[in-house]
Amino acid sequence: MEIKIVGGGLSGAEAAYQLAERGAKVLLFEMRPTSSTPAHKTAYLSELVCSNSLKSQELLNAHGLLKEELRRLGSLLVHTADQSAIPGGKALVVDRDRFAARITEILEGHGNIQVIRQEVREIPEGIVVVATGPLTSGVLAEELKVVTAGDSLSFFDAISPIVDSSSIDMDRAFFGSRYSHDSDDYLNCPLTEEEYEAFYDALMSAQRVDLREFEKTPFFEGCLPIEVMAERGKNTLLFGPMKPVGMVDRRTGREPFAVVQLRRENQAGTMYNMVGFQTKLTWPEQQRVFGLIPALRNASFFRFGSIHRNTFVEGPRVLNEDLSLKAREDLFLAGQITGVEGYMESTAMGLLAGLSALSYGKGVPFTPPPPTTCTGALVRYITTPRKGFQPMNVNFGLLEGYNKKRKEACARRALDDMDAWIRAKDLSMNVSTSS
Q1: Hey, is 208 helix, strand or coil?
Q2: Cα torsion for 349, 351, 354, 355, to the nearest 10°?
Q3: Architecture of the domain made up of 159-307
Q4: Domain residue spans in the chain?
Q5: Looking at the domain covering 2-152+313-425, what would its CATH class be?
Q6: Of the residues 157, 326, 329, 435, which has the maximum number of CB atoms within 10 A of its CB?
Q7: Where are the alpha helices (DSSP H) in 122-251?
Q8: pTM for the structure as a whole
């Protein structure tokens, strides 16, 4: 059986691995490096274009619970993330290059996978998984519009700057996590009230990238540019990415008025990400405004923040619960283009799309995990009709029967139900990375 996958991001890579490990022959098309996108920087498969954090590891957090479900499903990406982890407090944070390089090595070396480096401009015939993600090229996006008989939806997404650690003034910064002062997981840049006010005023008056072409396109609420957050009020940032609560400056023994957290991008600690500082400021303005943060007054940036347009389909209108298109049953969608938001959410949809495509090829109906699980709840969200459909991160509110007072029981039920689904589908698989 041969299955074509278009797109080598997180969801496409996961789908390819799941299919190949189960004996299918996979043609994995990835247009990079021949053609690139506004956000990608490398030719690696599964390149992380935004944060290098895969969010919480805790089972009483929906993001942590989803990752545990994926581990039990034999997810290559979660397994590799665990192996590529660097300090990040309660979050699973990875060395982004090590993570993507290892995924690329495994898939390119797999006997059942042929990686083809070319842009797909027309949807192929046969069994196909489209996993082109939120940065789907214009030509293919137009193809999808035709197949789905409607317009694609879209929103703006922004990414944070990355700072050269050697340019940070360490005398004006301190290590520590929120409520964990002995930790070195984050490097914190404190500001006094006067320094915050100067920063805020500069931020509000700074020049931004001209977005008139897409002026009616909304931002994704979970990834707002910092200047957009700041427009909501002078103190908004103090309850968001610059929140000082739980932070104690080791040098003074006091809580600062405001703080900017920097998170390691790699194991060596040569690069730091400005947490929550996604932005649409022009590059010269980022240098000027962020330079008002005392510890970053002489900062050099490996990457400035930027903004890009994300595309997704109206899942409830065009998708079946097996992630196939209602208009073409041998064509499956995976990842963020389905209307989920987030790295692990995309990975989950890639994994399920791969399994579903395999079932279709065998002539066996595919049903997703129950909506009491995070994975199944996401499928239900993107396939159940609703007004004003917008992308969604995983959260406990999506789980069927969720009760805030019984969160621990809901988490246990999710894992029990996932284990039962795996046994019923005979999907048990240990991840092998020796390929």
Answers
A1: strand
A2: -110
A3: Beta Barrel (2.40)
A4: 2-152+313-425, 159-307
A5: alpha beta
A6: 157
A7: 138-148, 193-205, 226-230
A8: 0.73
